[in-house]
Amino acid sequence: MSKKLTKFSSLAITTALWLAAIPGGAQQVSSRSQQTAAPKVAQRQTSQFAQDPWWKHAVIYEIYPRSFQDSNGDGVGDINGIASRLDYLHDLGIGAIWITPMYPSPLVDFGYDVADYAAIDPLYGTLEDFDHLMAEAKKRNIRVIMDLVPNHTSDQHPWFKESRSSRTNSKRDWYIWRDGKAPGQPPNNWQSWFGHSAWQFDSATNQYYYHHFYTEQPDLNWRNPEVRKAMYDAMRFWLDRGVAGFRLDAVSRLFEDPNLHDDPILPGKNAYGDPNIAHKYTDNLPEIHEVLREMRRLVDAYPGNPVLISEADEPNIAELTKMYGRKNDEIQLPMDFQIADVNKLSAPDFRKLFDEVDRNAAHGHPHFFFSNHDQPRQWDRYGDGVHNDQIAKLMAALLLTTRATPLMYYGEEIGMRTTPPVRKEDVQDPIGEIGWPEEKGRDGERTPMQWDNTKDAGFSSADHPWLPIPPSAAEYNVSVESSDPHSILSFYKRLLALRRSEPALRNGTYAALDRDDAHVFAYLRKNPAKGDSILVALNMSAEPRTVKLDLSALGLKANSAKTLVAAPQIGNGSVSFTHFVIPPFGVFVGSVH
Ligand code: GLC
Prior knowledge:
Blueprint: H1 15-21, H2 38-51, E1 60-63, H3 79-84, H4 86-92, E2 96-99, H5 127-139, E3 143-148, H6 158-165, E4 177-178, E5 199-202, E6 207-210, H7 225-240, E7 245-248, E8 265-269, E9 275-277, H8 288-300, E10 307-310, H9 317-322, E11 333-334, H10 337-340, H11 347-358, E12 367-369, H12 378-382, H13 388-400, E13 405-409, H14 430-435, H15 478-482, H16 488-501, H17 503-507, E14 509-513, E15 520-526, E16 533-539, E17 545-547, E18 560-567, E19 574-576, E20 580-582, E21 587-592
Parallel strand pairs: 1-2, 1-13, 2-3, 3-7, 7-10, 10-11, 12-13
Antiparallel strand pairs: 4-6, 5-6, 8-9, 14-15, 15-16, 16-21, 17-20, 18-19, 18-21
Helix pairs in contact: 1-16, 7-8, 13-16
Residues 1, 109, 112, 149, 213, 249-250, 311, 373-374 line the site of alpha-D-glucopyranose.
């Protein structure tokens, strides 16, 4: 969970045939990428896929299961609902889905409070439903990534119930229990990410337990080998069922300073009225790397290259690089929170951060995202209030044309917006209750997927879905946007198809162009083999901008590019570098050789 981004902290399908099927789709794509080229592209693609692990090329799509599709009319999304939408994901060109937790849970933190790591919560279905989803996903070449929550359990997990039962229980040491500093005083000043002290007094045994998140989410003690074994058994349980890897929740918080040093106090107060602190003694302790290596060895023992994705909001490139491991033996895809946290359309900021991660000392593969279930959606975060739909397309291009493995959040492809609750009594996410009105919680970015114009936007048949359908659903939904060639959805589809058909977009090197331009972020994805390279130019300002590009330093003589995808229309099938004007927030993706 991001330090800067979250409100509570600081306040595949081949291109050609498919494109031809979209009204207007072919207009923006050169003839080179149409029908005649398709079979060759597909062959090349197969051989490259054979060499690289799948996770370097797949586009990953995050599903918040409560909100994707409800199949049984109870107002909450479920596994059979996800299975019923696999064709949509396949048509979109998604290679893997990451599903946030579906384990049995009291749902205090909507599943991130796990009560059993080897089962499915009945709200979402059964293990049989899960196996069915796996089988159906496999038929469509879509992999399934589980969300693993290793840092903490629910206070209703049998492990914790045992642990709290007595000081001498065999599971006492599975959690972090300490005496208070003095009567009525917690052991130190550590704070919960969700407000107030991170220590909860338990009168049954007169000790405090540590919880980095909600009181109902006690932290596991990763210094205890039995805890490690139990969590690794849980990983094997899902790998044995065929999952393609894990997104590791809050993994930088697995260890705490055993000497309980107080965290440094910073100026000011947070949204909960607590003094700001630096989580120096509970975040990113070096011990996490041994665990990450153990987890990596575990997944590497399975066929099919399972992936580990880390949720760790590393503060800079040096820390992010460490997540790959000294011998590239830890996380394959560390989420890049630095890039997700730019939070403004700034060509210089993106250029700097893209450069840094592209050249990371571990030669690790970058992994980008802009939205998820913890932070306001990108449509509003990057939107200027006037050109939001155009900016949504620009953000799509930024995500889908770089070297990184892209991670999309459900609904970004249709321009879903953040719709926070208006009244405190409607809040579902407890942090919205604790922090109201400054902190309204995360409901706004978790509203139901907008499928069509029918009841509940096609999400459910319930009278009251668990979160209300945003008013924007009438205009922004899959059905309406599928028939509009200029919609955000059609734009995403074109880019996703291009990413699959263009070798340079998958394997090309990355080099920023015109490094001094304050408004246009332009880069070249250079094809390492023969064939066209891809030029991307994004105008991050509300004014038309003229760019002068010179690719000679990159070994290319080209002084023009053929349009592959552009929004709005730029040039007439091609652009000349001597007169290249990009409209406000315009996107140009073209081929050069
Ligand atoms: C992660 C999840 C977030 C959850 C927290 C505690 O940051 O993304 O939704 O509340 O961990 O598990």
